[in-house]
């Protein structure tokens, strides 16, 4: 039973340093069962990091007591071949990689190599992406694809030839015309966007969600109906041409000559050779002269975190000299010439301790899972969003459930799936609340919408607090030192009642100084921060107000529109600012809907806000200075051909930071974006521009150097 498996796994994870010989057999059985769930069922109940820890615990015990059991999980991948596919045998065994989460182990990896070689020398390496996906070998004969096999237990696995032929990135034929069979090895991946869309479809259909893209890709590739595979948008990346030197003379004597550079037989050149045959290879690889360059590159990659269209969990480090591969050989489990460096896990297992009904600043009620604290990508996570009650019930998340959570990028963690096999049936289901947890107002739900919300916009304490928190945040008013707790206290004391009142806080100076924790310096710093926030960009002003669905992009569009109404060659800046009062309170939805990217919902929200909150907005505008980018005597020239354009910045620049470039873009009322798509207008590329540069080329996005960008402003 899975719950027993988890109980035993947790015991060994918590007591790894206090185990003895008597625990070896039990650990072997546990790892075999985890292998079955991972490879055969695509339903892992522990994370990769937890599995690796159990693996190393068992390996140390076997080494300590001199046990060499060939059926152990440390010696072979104990995976059953599915009966739904024909069994087949690999030409050459496909084995796993040894791995580490510690860069110090990489230095030990080289020491082991040098000990085997019995010499001191500087060794060259290649780094490539570690996908940790489903391994596949493709066999070609007479330059045509004849067979595709999954990795399985390394020797034997399933024949998935028909399914593999549905993948666009797999060549049916290659320009390497030899009669004998040759093998090329791949990893099959599912792009993150395809994974999210697939899980969305399954959620709507009430089907079980996939825990991660790897499991979704494996399931999609191993379907009896090849049309399922065809519809999944899978990608393949080639990484190996086993025993390439065997085909050297054959290739040169055949209809295709191997490239001259291949005679050196380096792994880097092997990848280039695979590309020349039409195979898709990793979008990133790096040649290093020595192990020191490897460690520095890993650090650089982790700090810069280049984004790819698919999920990776680390890097693979391989000796570049292929002649040393045969000298070093392999163990039954992994090659001695390669090691995987794994990034900290972003997908981890934990327990739901409680589920809170959280009220947001717009009144929407969101279920938030309170979790047993876990470390995710070096961040301790104790909460995760469940988005809405429809998703909560479709995923069937309950209090005391074992769940997988994910933290992608810098977003709030979310619960992605429940380990239902681990249930003890003591878990508690959650009902949808009928009243607002903050003000007790009866909740409402609009027809066709999934969100329940509190309609008490002006008097709900939670919504009031959320509005103030948004307004003072760093990216909008930027009032440093005014956190959630301080705002909550000031609301309770009636020191602040609307946004304008923030700028009159000094009249409560004596009362604030009398509060616990408010010494003179801290209080003065707060007043200084408030004073410094009086100058506000108009687009930021619109977003800071908290108008529903008005984010950064819509704020800029609205600001451009309002500014166009205030511009007049005979009107002064002061007169333009005075006109803002009139414009904002006389907006109508018909005019707004004529603006590109402003739909009826946005138009309604904007007009409603300035009608409903007319007095507070006027009061706020009297307290702050709105920065208008164009004055009659301005040196800035607006080019109509590049108005309303979008920019993305990537790479590094020696003379200016990316933040400074973003500020220039925003000052010119252009849009900044964080990702590349076919709708992007310009990519500003510096040094070491990675995937974004490649993606921009694929989408035919215009690429600018820094000098070219300067000419535009």
UniProtKB/TrEMBL annotation:
It comes from the Bacteria. Its cofactor is Mg(2+); Mn(2+). Residues 637-713 form the BRCT domain. The keyword Ligase applies. One of its GO terms (molecular function) is metal ion binding. It is an enzyme of class 6 (ligase). NAD(+) binds at residues 48-52, 96-97, 128, 151, 187, 318, 342. It catalyses: NAD(+) + (deoxyribonucleotide)n-3'-hydroxyl + 5'-phospho-(deoxyribonucleotide)m = (deoxyribonucleotide)n+m + AMP + beta-nicotinamide D-nucleotide. The lineage of its organism: Bacteria, environmental samples. The active site is at 130 (n6-amp-lysine intermediate). Its EC number is 6.5.1.2. It comes from uncultured bacterium. This is DNA ligase. DNA ligase that catalyzes the formation of phosphodiester linkages between 5'-phosphoryl and 3'-hydroxyl groups in double-stranded DNA using NAD as a coenzyme and as the energy source for the reaction. It is essential for DNA replication and repair of damaged DNA. Keywords: DNA damage, DNA repair, DNA replication, Ligase, Magnesium, Manganese, Metal-binding, NAD, Zinc. One of its GO terms (biological process) is DNA repair. Zn(2+) binds at residues 436, 439, 454, 460. SUPFAM superfamilies: BRCT domain, DNA ligase/mRNA capping enzyme, catalytic domain, Nucleic acid-binding proteins, RuvA domain 2-like. The gene is ligA. InterPro entries: BRCT_dom (IPR001357), BRCT_dom_sf (IPR036420), DNA_ligase (IPR001679), DNAligase_adenylation (IPR013839), DNAligase_N (IPR013840), NA-bd_OB-fold (IPR012340), NAD_DNA_ligase_OB (IPR004150), RuvA_2-like (IPR010994). Gene3D superfamilies: 5' to 3' exonuclease, C-terminal subdomain, 6.20.10.30, BRCT domain, DNA ligase/mRNA capping enzyme, Helix hairpin bin, Nucleic acid-binding proteins. Belongs to the NAD-dependent DNA ligase family. LigA subfamily.
């Amino acid at each position: 039973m899975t719950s027993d498996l988890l109980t035993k796994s947790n015991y060994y994870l918590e007591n790894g340093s206090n185990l003895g010989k008597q625990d070896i057999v039990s650990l072997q059985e546990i790892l075999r069962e985890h292998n079955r769930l991972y490879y055969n069922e695509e339903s892992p109940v522990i994370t990769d990091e937890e599995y690796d820890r159990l693996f190393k615990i068992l390996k140390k015990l076997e080494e300590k007591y001199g046990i060499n059991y060939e059926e152990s999980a440390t010696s072979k991948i104990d995976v059953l071949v599915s009966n739904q596919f024909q069994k087949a045998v690999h030409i050459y065994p496909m084995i796993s990689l040894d791995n580490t989460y510690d860069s110090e182990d990489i230095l030990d990896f080289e020491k082991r190599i040098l000990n085997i070689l019995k010499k001191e020398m500087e060794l060259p390496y290649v780094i490539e992406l570690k996908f940790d996906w489903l391994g596949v070998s493709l066999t070609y004969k007479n330059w045509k694809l004849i067979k595709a096999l999954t990795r399985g237990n390394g020797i034997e696995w399933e024949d998935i030839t028909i399914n593999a032929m549905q993948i666009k990135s797999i060549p049916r034929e290659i320009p390497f015309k030899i009669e004998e069979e040759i093998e090329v090895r791949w990893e099959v991946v599912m792009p993150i966007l395809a994974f999210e869309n697939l899980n969305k479809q399954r959620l709507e259909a009430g089907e079980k969600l996939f825990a991660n893209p790897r499991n979704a890709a494996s399931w999609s590739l191993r379907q009896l109906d090849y049309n399922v595979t065809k519809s999944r948008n899978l990608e393949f990346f080639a990484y190996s041409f086993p025993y390439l030197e065997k085909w050297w003379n054959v290739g040169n004597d055949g209809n295709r000559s191997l490239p001259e550079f291949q005679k050196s037989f380096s792994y880097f050149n092997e990848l280039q050779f695979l590309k020349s045959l039409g195979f898709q290879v990793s979008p990133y690889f790096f040649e290093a002269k020595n192990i020191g360059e490897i460690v520095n590159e890993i650090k650089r990659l982790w700090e810069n975190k280049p984004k790819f269209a698919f999920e990776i969990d680390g890097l693979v480090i391989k000796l570049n000299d292929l002649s040393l591969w045969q000298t070093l050989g392999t163990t039954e489990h992994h090659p001695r010439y390669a090691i995987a460096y794994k990034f900290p896990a972003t997908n981890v297992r934990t327990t739901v301790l409680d589920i809170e009904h959280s009220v947001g600043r717009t009144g929407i009620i969101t279920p938030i899972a309170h979790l047993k604290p876990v470390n995710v990508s070096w961040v301790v996570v104790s909460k995760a969003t469940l988005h809405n009650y429809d998703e909560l019930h479709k995923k069937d998340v309950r209090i005391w459930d074992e769940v997988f959570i994910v933290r992608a990028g810098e977003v709030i963690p979310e619960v992605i799936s429940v380990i239902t096999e681990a249930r003890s049936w003591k878990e508690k289901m959650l009902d949808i609340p009928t009243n607002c947890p903050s003000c007790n107002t009866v909740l409402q739900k609009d027809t066709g919408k999934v969100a329940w919300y509190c309609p008490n916009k002006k008097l709900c304490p939670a919504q009031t607090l959320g509005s103030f928190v948004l307004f003072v945040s760093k990216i909008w008013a930027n009032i440093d030192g005014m956190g959630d707790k301080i705002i909550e206290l000031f609301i309770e004391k009636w020191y602040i009642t609307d946004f304008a009142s923030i700028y009159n806080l000094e009249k409560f100076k004596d009362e604030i100084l009398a509060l616990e924790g408010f010494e003179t310096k801290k209080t003065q710093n707060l007043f200084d921060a408030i004073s410094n926030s009086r100058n506000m960009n108009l687009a930021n002003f619109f977003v800071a107000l908290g108008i529903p669905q008005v984010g950064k992009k819509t704020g800029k569009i609205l600001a451009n529109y309002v500014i166009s109404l205030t511009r007049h060659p005979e009107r002064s800046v002061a007169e333009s600012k005075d006109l803002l009062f009139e414009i904002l309170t006389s907006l109508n939805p018909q005019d707004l809907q004529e603006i590109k990217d402003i739909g009826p919902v946005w138009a309604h929200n904007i007009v409603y806000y300035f009608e409903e909150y007319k007095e507070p907005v006027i009061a706020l505008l009297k307290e702050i200075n709105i920065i208008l980018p164009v004055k009659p005597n301005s040196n800035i020239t607006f080019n109509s051909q590049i108005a309303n354009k979008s920019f993305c910045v990537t790479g590094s620049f020696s003379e200016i930071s990316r933040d400074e470039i973003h500020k220039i873009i925003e000052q010119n009322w252009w849009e900044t974006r964080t990702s590349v798509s076919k709708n992007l207008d310009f990519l500003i590329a510096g040094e070491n521009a990675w995937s974004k540069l490649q993606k921009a080329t694929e989408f035919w996005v215009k690429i600018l150097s820094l000098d070219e960008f300067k000419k535009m402003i």
